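Support request from a user on the community tier.

User writes: "When I paste my structure tokens into the form, the page sometimes reloads and wipes my input. The last time it worked, I copied everything first. Here is what I submitted, just in case something in the input itself triggers the reload:"
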């Protein structure tokens, strides 16, 4: 395991808080314009599709936590992997997830934003 730099833990915490707020503008501020969410259910999902699902209320998050365990910083790119859990609703039905989450961050003009999130279900 690698030590996770404090700034990456802070980025992850801010991203989680934005997702739980269900505030599209707040979430958008955490991600790049070309952010992609890779899910086990449908594969890559665009930033626009995720934000629209949240904006419409089809997707909501009530809780979201991540415990970062691996990370690496390589100049203006960094990644962090950890165990994540979340709850909320999808199309009105309750949902919950326990998964391994890898976020790839990119620093542009001094600001770190997530450019890729990859989800892998954790074994039960």
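"...and here is what came back when it finally went through:"
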């Amino acid at each position: 395991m690698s030590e996770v730099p404090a700034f990456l833990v802070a980025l992850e915490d801010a991203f989680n808080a934005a997702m739980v707020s269900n505030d599209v503008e707040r979430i958008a501020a955490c991600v790049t314009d070309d952010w992609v969410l890779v899910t086990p259910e449908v594969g890559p999902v665009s930033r626009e599709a995720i934000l629209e699902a949240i904006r419409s209320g089809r997707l909501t998050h009530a809780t979201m936590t991540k415990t970062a365990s691996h990370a690496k910083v390589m100049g203006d790119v960094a990644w962090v992997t950890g165990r994540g859990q979340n709850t909320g609703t999808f199309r009105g039905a309750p949902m919950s997830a326990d998964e391994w989450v890898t976020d790839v961050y990119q620093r542009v003009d001094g600001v770190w934003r997530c450019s890729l999130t990859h989800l892998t279900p954790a074994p039960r």
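Agent notes: The reload is a front-end session timeout and is unrelated to the input. The beta strands are 31-39, 43-46, 59-74, 77-90, 93-108, 111-121. The helical segments are 6-21, 24-28, 47-56. Escalated to web team.
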